[in-house]
Amino acid sequence: MATTTPSSAGAEDQAGPEASTDAADGKSGAARERSTVRTLLRLWPYVRPVRVRLFAAAFVAIVASCIGLVIPLVLKWMVDGPIAGRDPAGVWLGALYLLLLGLAEALLFGFRRWLVARPLSHVEAEMRADLYRHLQRLPVAFHDRWPSGQLLSRATTDLMLLRMFLAFPLTFLLVNGVTIVVGVVIMLVQDRALGLVVLVPAVPVLVTCVVFEKKYAQASRAAQDQVGDLTTVVEESVLGIRVIKGFGRHRSQARVFRELSGRLRGMELRKARLLATILGVIVTLPEVAIGAALVLGCVRVADGQLSAGTLVAFLSTALALRWPVDSIGFLLAMSQEAGTATERYFEVMDARPEPGVTEAPRAQASSKALGTPRRTGAPAPSGLRFENVTFRYPDAPPDSPPVLDRVDLHIRPGESLALVGATGSGKTTLTALVPRLYDVTSGRITLDGVDIAGMPREELRSKVAVAFEDPTLFSATVKENVLMGAPQEELERALGVAQAGFVYGLPDGVDTQVGEQGLSLSGGQRQRLALARAVVGRPDFLVLDDPLSALDVHTEAAVEAALRRVLADTTALIVAHRPSTVLLADRVALLSGGRITAVGTHHELLHGNPEYAHLMAADPAGEREAQR
Ligand SMILES: Nc1ncnc2c1ncn2[C@@H]1O[C@H](COP(=O)(O)OP(=O)(O)OP(=O)(O)O)[C@@H](O)[C@H]1O
After folding, report:
1. Per-residue pLDDT for 290 more than 60?
2. Region labeled Disordered — which residues (predicted)?
């Protein structure tokens, strides 16, 4: 299956279990070269609808923060005025001013929080819905390549980081920036010399921030990718719990998990060390500068060059700026993580969806070119045709031999054709091309004369129904699993064809919830539900990948009898391993070495084609059949 994965796509020094070499990796490399700001700007389309509230919230926060800076000025007035003049009424008035200012500041910060809470959860929900929609439209080849944990972590952890960024660092980087500038101006106005002393650490702090940004970006990318890898391991361990327990592999599985979580822990520690370094610089240098300003200020007050009130105001302003300065480290770290989350989110969103859903105009043009108008009058039925079809998996090396090599095959309208071939000969691959789970590398496939490449996917998938070899069921009721959008009236007939009467004996009948992946049902039961799902929509074309492999001989005979009636007026392609399944079909095609090497009836091939006879003889029933 998946051969290369984008696991730990951006982790340079801490590659995941399968170091990535694919396109997504290259993409993340390019994305990393972009600045965090440019990456974050890609969020604008999502933020746009809530921009008014967001800007209003930022404005409110700036006002609140600047109110905080007025408090030192009131203190100066109190110290130099009522306190120096021993005027208790003035002191009380000053205290009242301070109380009102503090109250206004608190109320405004509360108002800001109220302004952003609802819109930001809306942004997160929109982004998550878009991601989910996009994932549904991405080709199967994309899902072959991407581990599910990487996608899950993008839909959960990364989006949560983005919401937190929009709620907090985005506003506060701006608010704190403005507060620092206003505060510095106030300090310079109070006393230029003291102001310059406090400003001295600005240069080393800025340089540290720039260095920190680069290093932290790499570490946060690696950590977030490792979370994705870890999620994949947890998910696989839960889904594969039967295999793990059955083979007693829990120790080795736990070892893999420990190794990965150890790596993640190492990366988180690296992030913590980087953060501690920047905090050390950001907190220590300004504190030393404030200390120096305090000493210098006291000397100047003693010399009579500065009033005590001015020194109090100056130091209160400097202390009021401590949080805006100290928090820069955290805010930058959170912004960096949000930048990485945005990058990871858009790596998926930038992947090209399947053409067809969104490219209806091209589809129409193409069907016109074929001279087979789709909507005005049905095309003459000519069945399912493979014309010179060559296929190589998208992630296969370009010089590798194709899985299917110039396949020509015609299934006439209403005919059933069994596809037989050795394991790994490409039968499943051939069936996957009909509903366009993969696109042909060259050649074309037509349904009633219309090239499926030019057919809108919705139309294609309403004509073609598939029952896969692996009968996946969703965590939903039996009814929902079978219908999947088809009319309710068809349910009973479909369950009848698939001989799935057992569902009526389940605790809630067709409304019984089947567990994740239908694990509460047996393999044969799941296979019958998957078959019912395939026939429920009365498709014109039916593709069945070994649909009866998990059934006992009696159930198989009953399903075959019912299927025969369905197949009588459907064009069907049936992958078959056993003579009993082959006998459902009118003709058989043998797939060998990527080509169709023989087509005929079961009996013709059994007697005229040694490879076919060998494949069928491997089965005792086939052997009997061959001897007859
Ligand atoms: N997603 C994929 N990416 C790359 N190669 C793949 C992929 N799926 C299958 N293959 C390869 O394509 C070849 C044909 O596989 P396919 O599943 O079509 O065989 P099959 O005839 O259906 O086998 P079986 O009878 O065992 O089901 C195999 O060599 C397989 O390794």
Report:
1. yes
2. 1-31, 355-381
Pick from 166, 196, 212, 155: which is nearest to 333 by CA?
A: 212
Say yes or no: 94 and 191 in one domain.
Answer: yes
For residue 619, give both structure tokens. 């089965």
Is 507 close to ligand 1, i.e. is its CB under 6 Å away?
no
Summarised one tens digit per residue, pLDDT across range 561-616 is 777 777 777 898 999 888 878 888 889 999 998 899 999 988 888 888 899 888 88
The tokens for 218 are 């790499």
Q: Provide the domain count of the chain.
A: 2
The DSSP symbol for 439 reads -
Q: What is the ipTM of this complex?
A: 0.95
How far apart, in whole angstroms, are the C-alpha atoms of residue 538 and residue 486? 9
- Answer whether residue 369 is part of any domain: no
Based on the domain organization, do 226 and 143 belong to the same domain? yes
Q: What is the 469 CA–ligand 1 centroid distance (Å)?
A: 12
Residue in this structure with the two tokens 């401590």, named with its chain if needed? 322
At 347, the amino acid letter reads E
**How far is Cα 459 from Cα 200, in angstroms, rounded to an integer?**
69
Nearest alpha-carbon partner for 444 in 521, 504, 366: 366
* Structure confidence by residue, pLDDT tens digits, 296-328: 999 988 888 888 888 888 888 888 888 888 888
391 and 345 part of one domain: no
DSSP 8-state symbol, 551? S
Q: Which two tokens stand for residue 272?
A: 């913590």
221 or 620, greater pLDDT = 221
3-state secondary structure of 12: coil
- Name the one residue in this structure whose structure tokens are 């169709």: 596
For ligand 1, whether the C-beta of 429 sits within 6 Å is: yes
- 380-436 pLDDT, tens per residue? 677 899 999 999 998 888 788 899 999 999 999 888 899 999 988 999 999 999 988
* pTM recorded for the entire structure: 0.70
Place of tokens 């005229």: 608
Measured CA to CA, the distance from residue 402 to residue 591 in angstroms comes to 13
How confident is the model over 353-367, as pLDDT tens digits?
866 544 443 344 344
Range of the domain at 310: 36-349
How far is 176 from 172, CA to CA, in rounded Å?
A: 5
Asked if residue 501 is part of any domain, the answer here is no
Out of 429, 430, 439, give the residue to mutate to test ligand 1, the one with the largest number of ligand atoms within 8 Å of its CB: 429
**Residue owning the nearest CA to atom 31 of ligand 1:** 424
**Burial annotation 465-497 (CB, 10 A radius, 16+ → b, else e):** bbbbbebebeeebbbbbbbeebeeebbeebbeb
Q: Secondary structure of 444-459 in the HEC alphabet?
A: EEEECCEEHHHCCHHH
Residue 521's closest CA among 533, 532, 511, 506? 506
Distance CA 210, CA 206 (A): 6
* Residues in contact with 169: Cβ distance below 8 Å, sequence separation at least 6, in sequence order: 330, 331, 332, 334, 335, 338
> What's the mean per-residue pLDDT of the chain?
82
Residues 241 and 191 both lie in one domain: yes
Spatial separation of the C-alpha atoms in residues 596 and 230, rounded to whole Å: 43
Distance of CA 261 from the midpoint of ligand 1 (Å): 33
Q: Is any atom of ligand 1 closer than 6 Å to the C-beta of 393?
A: yes
The 8-class DSSP code of residue 50 comes to: G
Which band of pLDDT confidence, cut at 50, 70 and 90, is reported for residue 516? low
